[in-house]
Amino acid sequence: MMSVQDLDCLAGPGESARPLRVLRPGACEAFLSSLPSSQAQYLRQVGFTGAAQQFALIPGPEGVAGAVVGLGEDRGPYAFGGLAAQLPKDSIWKLERGDYDAATALLGFCLGAYQYRGAGKQGQRLARLQPPAGCDWALTEAATIWSVRDLINTPANLLGPAELAEAVIRCARTNDARVEQVNGTELERSYPAIAAVGAGSERAPHVVTLRWTGSRAGVNAPLISLCGKGVCFDTGGYDIKPSSAMLRMKKDMGGAACILGIAHLVMQADLPVRLAVRIGCVENSISGRAMRPQDVIRTRCGLSVEIGDTDAEGRLVLCDLLSEAVEENPALLLDCATLTGAARVALGPELPAFFCNHEGWAQVLSQAGQRTYDPLWRLPLWEGYDSWLNSPVADMNNVSSKPYAGAIIAALFLRRFVPLSVAWAHIDLFAWNEATQPGRPEGGEAQAVRAVFAALRLAAENAFVIAPIPDQNSEVT
After folding, report:
1. pLDDT for 19-37, tens place per residue?
2. Which one is catalytic: 315, 344, 416, 440?
3. pLDDT digits (tens, 9 = 90+) for 151-203
4. Which helix (H) or strand (E) holds 284?
5. Largest Cα–Cα distance in the chain?
6. Do strands 128-129 and 92-95 pair parallel, antiparallel, or not at all (unpaired)?
7. DSSP one-letter string for 81-146
8. Which pLDDT does position 472 carry in this prediction?
9. Which of these, 113, 238, 369, 426, could form a disulfide with 9 (CB 3.0-4.6 Å)?
10. Domain with CATH 3.40.630.10 in the chain
């Protein structure tokens, strides 16, 4: 993953910097009164009141003397997300004291300064910020998110299954983790559903497993198991996507990228846990070897699946990874995937859906998303729809014939590979910003990374005592 040193939006402490003042509406008038009358009058005339996302340069005798940004009541990082582009190019700034959290401000500035340069395009020259003292973790988070975005933004001709596998290996090396890679005939034996998804591509599938133990974790420390869908390009297979739907399919490995981001943060924070990460790296293509509609394939755990739709391949990748993960009885099993368009229809592109079979973990994840401004929204594992996956020729179909509840159906499919004894969460995310907003440039996005890490850190601090929420209908004693 990217290091803090790669954040080119930062300036050194010895460089000359202009002051950047951060204001809320209640403090605005006092600040204006402290300025020379010409500067105060200018800010009043341009209508600066400290409202959210307001920005103004402060004129001085030699040009720009400083700048002000309004927060309104916003306490999140995106309040600072537009600054790198709003401030003059090549300028250097330092944050003045104010009613805000310095680490949050630094994170937001860095998130907004991201530019993808992996395919050789030169980025714009943006403003730089001197990091406030004591904000090292915000820089770690920012560098991690830049890395996740880079992976998702990389064109599919430059990031196939082998290259994604290499990215997992680099992450393992950075964090002194153990790693093993499976491909070829061994992959066909151990991960038959993943092999079926990748059979149509000239670029063979890989499964990479990363293992790590924190310095404070004993042999019986909680095991966190993370699984990621790494479909490097998805044509839809024989159920081919329309061209408009294929335009963003380089991002279909977004779940794997986000899982890598979560894992990197866990390792960088040295949480007292054991960590197992499984990434299925594969391409869903069309050829004479590709799986067909109504084929029946086997899975790692022995269940058979009828292929109702070759474009519902992500759940086939995950089911083999989940089956292997549950063999180790983890304290939490979590997967991320750009799995269904139905989740986007239900919640839109900015709000990932998640499903969870454990009420305590569901609450922890929801609250972590709110605290980190990295939201998640829970959808139900609705039992009434489970029979929609029935097949006359196999243990199950990979889709329902009904045109409803697609995200729920996908989650119910995955649930069949996870026993009730294992706490499990499934995140169905978009991993993409359709248009640039403050702190969220158009392109690949590291959704749920900060939220899941915050939940894991909180659980580790509480020795992983995650009590289920009592049923409202049960007796309280």
Report:
1. 999 999 999 999 999 999 9
2. 315
3. 999 999 999 999 999 999 999 999 999 999 999 999 999 999 999 999 999 99
4. strand 274-284
5. 81
6. parallel
7. TTHHHHSPTT-EEEEPP-SS-HHHHHHHHHHHH----TTSPPPP---EEPPPTT-HHHHHHHHHHH
8. 42
9. 113
10. 154-461
* Spatial separation of the C-alpha atoms in residues 295 and 275, rounded to whole Å: 35
Residues in the chain: 477
The contacts of residue 106 (CB under 8 Å, 6+ apart) are 80, 95, 129, 131, 132, 135, 138, 139, 142
DSSP strand pairing (353-356 vs 332-337): unpaired
- According to CATH, where is 3.40.220.10 located in the chain? 4-122+131-140
Q: Of 1.10.4160.10, 3.30.70.1450, 3.40.630.10, 1.20.950.20, which CATH number belongs to 154-461?
A: 3.40.630.10
What is the C-alpha end-to-end distance of the chain, expressed in Å? Answer: 49
**Whose CA is closest to 234, among 149, 161, 307?**
161
Q: Is 241 noted as a catalytic residue in this protein?
A: yes
| pTM metric for this prediction | 0.96
Burial of 452 per CB tally in 10 Å (0-12, 13-18, 19+): buried
CATH superfamily of 4-122+131-140: Leucine Aminopeptidase, subunit E, domain 1 (3.40.220.10)
Confidence bin at 129 (pLDDT 50/70/90): very high
In which element (H, E) is residue 411 found? helix 406-415
Distance of alpha carbon 115 from alpha carbon 7, whole angstroms: 10
Task: Give whole-number Cα distances, 100 to 16, 74, 93, 112, 372, in Å.
Answer: 23, 9, 17, 17, 15
Q: Is 184 left (phi over 0), alpha (psi -120 to 50) or beta?
A: left
User: In this structure, what DSSP letter does residue 342 have?
Assistant: H
251 is annotated as an active-site residue: no
Q: What are phi and psi of 59, to 5 degrees?
A: -75, 150
DSSP 210-230: EEEE-TT--TTSPEEEEEEEE
Burial of 72 (0-12, 13-18, 19+ CB in 10 A): middle
Token duo for residue 290? 């590709």
